[in-house]
Known about the structure:
The chain has 174 residues and is an alpha/beta fold. The chain contains six helices and five strands; from the N terminus they run H-E-E-H-H-E-H-E-H-E-H. The protein has one domain: Cytidine Deaminase, domain 2 (3-Layer(aba) Sandwich).
Amino acid sequence: MEKENNNNNNKRLSLIEYSSSLALFASGRSQDINTKVGACLVNLNNKRILSTSYNGVAPNMDYPEEFNKDRDYKGKMILHAENNLFRDCLIPAGADLMVCLTISPCEACAKVMCGFGIKEVYYIQEYPREKEFAFKKLFDFYNVKYRGLTNEEIGNMLHFTYGNLVTLKNLVKL
Length: 174
């Protein structure tokens, strides 16, 4: 396993921290004002990023304003980040795959991930409206390793991001 970041910018983020950071930044592209979800797909064999995505409407569609007024309607119509994750990427045959998410998956997205043979899933927080945590039952059945990020991992992501923002601020003289 990679050496963890010990709150020191001279160290590398772990693969999980790095991929979760990409998922977090991808969530910033979501048009959903209630639940911004980001995802990152990683090939564990070569530790390369295959895809990032976020929840939203289909490509080349405008986000309907009525989505902001009716959360239940929006929830039925919006494409989840996990589904968008697989839309535009080529997955090498036999690749061991990991998904990092900003929020734990719903049951339907967990099924999609199991169908793609995902080996590991990590998330920053559990989805508060998912009461039964059905994704855990599916992942247990299909032997998918999963867990929420630890406070230390989240702290490492924040520390690294903040350190780089300070550097960027100094470069552009804000």
